[in-house]
Amino acid sequence: MITGVGTKSYRPRSLDFNQRIRQQTSQQMSAGFIRALALMLTMVVIMLGAWSLFIHWQVASLGEKGRQLSVLLKAEEEKNISLRAIRAGMLSKRQVTKRAAERLHLVIPAKNQVHRF
């Protein structure tokens, strides 16, 4: 008898790629895996909600600070305008002579009062 003439070599039935994918997805997932997946998804949703609340709080607080600063800026602008008006009034020639006369008792000499040597 000659070896290998009347026999077939043994080959296990191999599944092609698509058949393996179908077989893997058709198997049931374990209950522990489903619980872990649900827990992870729940934690992600909670963390995203907390993050969005934090961002919302930050934006609201910055908006409030902006409003307070705008009120303060408006008050400072009004104060600046009034101070500029006072300064402009103090620097006029009439005000300077008036203040010099009041504080230092200085008077502008009359036209014929100054003599040249």
Q: Name the shape in a single word.
A: rod-shaped
Assess the beta-strand content as a share of residues.
under 5%
Tell me how many strands there are: 0
Query: How large is the radius of gyration?
Result: 47 Å
Percentage of helical residues?
Answer: 55-70%
End-to-end Cα distance, whole Å, is 156 Å
Poorly predicted runs of 5 or more residues:
none
- In DSSP terms (H or I, runs of 4 or more residues), the helix count works out at 3
Q: Please state the structural category.
A: mainly alpha
Mean pLDDT: 82
Query: What is the string of SSEs from the N terminus onward?
Result: HHH
* Largest sheet report: none
Summarize the structure in words.
With 117 residues, the protein is an all-alpha fold. Helices cover 69% and strands 0% of the residues. The chain is built from three helices and no strands. The chain has helices spanning 17-26, 31-90, 93-103. It is rod-shaped. The mean pLDDT is 82.
Key terms for this structure?
117 residues, single chain, mainly alpha
List the helices and strands and how they pair.
Elements: H1 17-26, H2 31-90, H3 93-103
Task: Give a summary of the structure in a few sentences.
By secondary structure, the protein is mostly helical. It contains three helices and no strands.
